[in-house]
Design brief:
alpha+beta; 3 helices; Glutaredoxin; globular
């Protein structure tokens, strides 16, 4: 099971990234757990300076923008 982590403070872009990530995971048919991390200290512990960010199994894949569903699929697939 993949651990998909959305790093962000709950802003509209963070919510959009969460929705698109969930859509991508469902389209891929993978088992996943979606976790939203909103505590600024926890976000910084990933080394992320710009939100929103997406981490897969604890490894940051993208930060500072909301990619499209197809790009997310390539990051989590």
């Amino acid at each position: 099971m993949k651990k998909l982590q959305i790093l962000g403070t709950g802003c509209p872009k963070c919510n959009t990234l969460a929705a698109k990530t969930e859509e991508a995971a469902k389209e891929l048919g993978i088992e996943y757990e979606l976790i939203k991390i909103s505590d600024i200290n926890d976000i910084m512990s990933f080394g992320v300076m710009m939100t929103p960010a997406l981490a897969v199994d604890g490894q940051v894949k993208i930060s500072g923008k909301v990619p499209g569903v197809d790009e997310i699929k390539s990051l989590i697939g």
